[in-house]
Amino acid sequence: MTSHTAAEIASQPACWRRAAESLPRHADVLPRRGERVAVTGCGTSWFMAQAYAALREGGGHGETDAFAASEFPHGRRYDRVLAISRSGTTTEVLDLLARARAAGVPTGALTADPATPVVALADTVAVLDFADERSVVQTRFATTALALLRARLETEDALPAGVRPLARAVRDAERAVTEPLPAALDGAEQFTFLGRGWTHGLALEAGLKLREAAGAWTEAYPAMEYRHGPIAIAAPGRVTWTFGPLPDGLTEDIARAGGRLVAGSGDAAADLDPLADLVRAQRLAVAVAAARGCDPDRPRHLTRSVVLRDHGA
Prior knowledge:
- The chain folds into 2 domains: 4-163, Glucose-6-phosphate isomerase like protein, domain 1 (Rossmann fold); 173-291, 3-Layer(aba) Sandwich (Rossmann fold), CATH 3.40.50.10490.
- The chain is built from 10 helices and 9 strands.
- It has helices at 4-10, 12-22, 44-58, 91-102, 117-121, 140-155, 166-176, 199-214, 250-257, 274-291; strands at 37-41, 64-68, 80-85, 107-111, 124-127, 190-195, 218-222, 238-243, 260-263.
- The longest helix has 18 residues, at 274-291.
- The protein is globular, with a radius of gyration of 19 Å.
């Protein structure tokens, strides 16, 4: 029987298309050109915030920072705070929005559920309910939120050089949900994910997916930092997976260490958009979970939302 997680992963190309089509309805929620913006979330949403921040600032749309909601620097001044929260109930996100409102900072939120507290706390809200999920492990909502934000930058000619149109990413994702994964990855001992610029956030998210779904040993780094220590992990039976073009010489360095390299974007054999390559990593998480006897629909120690009681702000 197909898991909820696997079915939701496969639905992403359609969700990204729908996000792009919904863009005109959400213009008031999304950052405007020239604004100084902070983007925030927890877990997966934080990693999507990091990817968007790098895309937005790299494309000249405006200074953009990304923070875990629990680590937000409230002493800084921003023109807008944008929160990403699938459930709309995460304690740290709600606390942040309440403090921003009290300080008079305009706020927006991307969520999957219109009947949650985030709708009342944010000044403007984009509800992507068509991308909501039954699975605890977040896949399609996160990538759909990033697709919406990426589509906004594209319409304003504010994507960094080399980032493809979203329509191309959708087509690549249609390949990513059907084409076989590289052979024998589900038996690997360890996985390291690498990215540069906006794809570093995708690398962090790929690592999280394997930890959540399969309890796998994973790490993630900026690609140019890999040789500054982390390459010591590379060995036979261990995988290094890169999002985006490889730094010069890294292929040879990994080969000398005995590791296995998987390059989904910038590689002549695959040449996938990095966001579509994240879909492959999500599928890998499900495959590794199955190989280890784990249920990706019921990950260990996790719930759909973290709601804290009697917490300190």
